[in-house]
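In the previous chapter we treated chains in isolation. Here, by contrast, the input contains two separate entities that must be folded as one system, with a combined length of 670 residues.
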Amino acid sequence: MLIAVDAMGGDFAPVEPCNGAIMACRENPDLSVALVGDSNKILPIIDKYGADVRSRLSVVHADEVIDCNDSPSLSIRRKKNSSLVIGFGMVRSGEADGIVSSGSTGAIAAGGVLLLGRIPGIDRPGLGAVLPVLNRPTLLMDVGGTVRCKPINLFQFAQMGSIYMKLFKGVENPSVRLLCNGEEITKGDEVISAARELIKASDLNYQGYAEGKDLPHGISDVVICDGFSGNILIKFGEGLGELLKDQFKEEYTHHLLPKIGLMFMWPAMKRVLGRFDWEKVGGSPLLGVNGSVIKVHGRSKRSAISFAILSAANFVEHHGVERIREAIAVEDEVL
Amino acid sequence: MLIAVDAMGGDFAPVEPCNGAIMACRENPDLSVALVGDSNKILPIIDKYGADVRSRLSVVHADEVIDCNDSPSLSIRRKKNSSLVIGFGMVRSGEADGIVSSGSTGAIAAGGVLLLGRIPGIDRPGLGAVLPVLNRPTLLMDVGGTVRCKPINLFQFAQMGSIYMKLFKGVENPSVRLLCNGEEITKGDEVISAARELIKASDLNYQGYAEGKDLPHGISDVVICDGFSGNILIKFGEGLGELLKDQFKEEYTHHLLPKIGLMFMWPAMKRVLGRFDWEKVGGSPLLGVNGSVIKVHGRSKRSAISFAILSAANFVEHHGVERIREAIAVEDEVL
């Protein structure tokens, strides 16, 4: 099993992707990782590790990097020597089994479609985000792959999301909800209503609409929305988290009482925050393309990247692409 | 100045709306409030108060209540004796200057359009929510009045939102941003692009797109989006807040250390949370209808309702409806 890792993607490249690869190899003895990027920068990071891990790391040199300012599809077409394009090429040729990148979301989605291609019958791939919410992880999908959706897109996200949560998170008969501006059937718009009917008519475990306030409480295994909604939502959550952290940090730094208080509260805070550890959810799968593709947040450190690599390997081991292909083929026969 | 208060709306009706009215009257000596609802329930609550406040409270009896399960426009048309419909009728006839309700959002929006009517030139009214974020209050608009929008709707929300923040929050030349799934001009969809061009061509202080993560940091005075996005976003924030509160409460209740820690941290927590006090923002204005209409959250207590009543009075004192009418008329001439 070989997973290609875009060693140049994200805010802490190449150090964190390289160390993430090392962590993942230690965790899974059957795993090998190809680090794609500037070999002059990558080799010094990995060469100090013992043969048990080092022997399962290879380096594939790439001269270029796609950054957030590049147009996603143009950069995929033009930057042939970028770490991301070379990594996707390895998956396409079968050399690698999957790819993990903490680079630009748009470029990863475009790369998945243009370089790996969609699974037959899939209209649009979907980028899921596993939210570390209460009670159970929730797959929110899409979070930026497909900005505006047709009913068939939302339906296929529900199919693919259910398969993902079943195979890779071990959820039996995953519950599915559609994100909506209210729980009543009259809410939403025509696209959401039509998607609801498609999902209800299928064998998916549809439970109704989910409101924004339900998401943090883990109301469902899978929550479906268009990429616009999913994107603003997860970024809003991220912004709120940062803000609260900054505010309390400011207090600890300038006042004695909260500093003492924090010492007493630390175990409780660790317990609470440990329940919502987004690093452990294993990144965001791009579902619906011919390959195991996991995107990690640009600010991810080694631990989050390691979980994402293990997640990509897990997807391959469980034949994720084949399972989605089968589900879509059956659906096509029924429709 | 007479503001009608729907005394039967919200989770704590009629006690909290009545007490909110009393608080508002104490705050503003020129204010009178008509409490609309079941007089048998309202009178015992208010009769114990001294003449200075009691003399400025009147009770308008209403037999019916519109609840969240009622269809918004049907209930407005059929429940003629409901507190909400009677309250709107008082504004329409000129008997009251404005109305405050913590009832169903849909019914308030429908009541505004059907009973007060839109300001000429306004295609769709918008429900704003003043977010108590860092640095400055941010008006997010729409949060559920108009689920899906045309470019003209988003543009008019920007106009009305700017007027609201200027007149009622004293913001000079309010900055305006469009909520989007990225800051680059290529993000969003055709509706957002077209709205962006309309706003840029106007005299509004347009600053670009805002991402979800920017919102909590107070990136702009006004942030425009469709009602679907605004609704899921504020409810998600609400759900996250509740969840964190519940989680820490659980810790305090069952463990000694965090209880001690909390004692030390209490002043810091009060300082931090005080910066994000949504009760003080004065409710959500329904802009674009012929009247001063403020919606308050269903779970609002007296303090939040009092601020909303003062906000409604403030809108009337500043001739909010006329200012919006003038702005739209000028725009119509230019277009």
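Chain A touches chain B through 61 residues (CB under 8 Å). The first strand of chain A starts at residue 2 and ends at 6. Compare these points with the single-chain example from earlier in the chapter.
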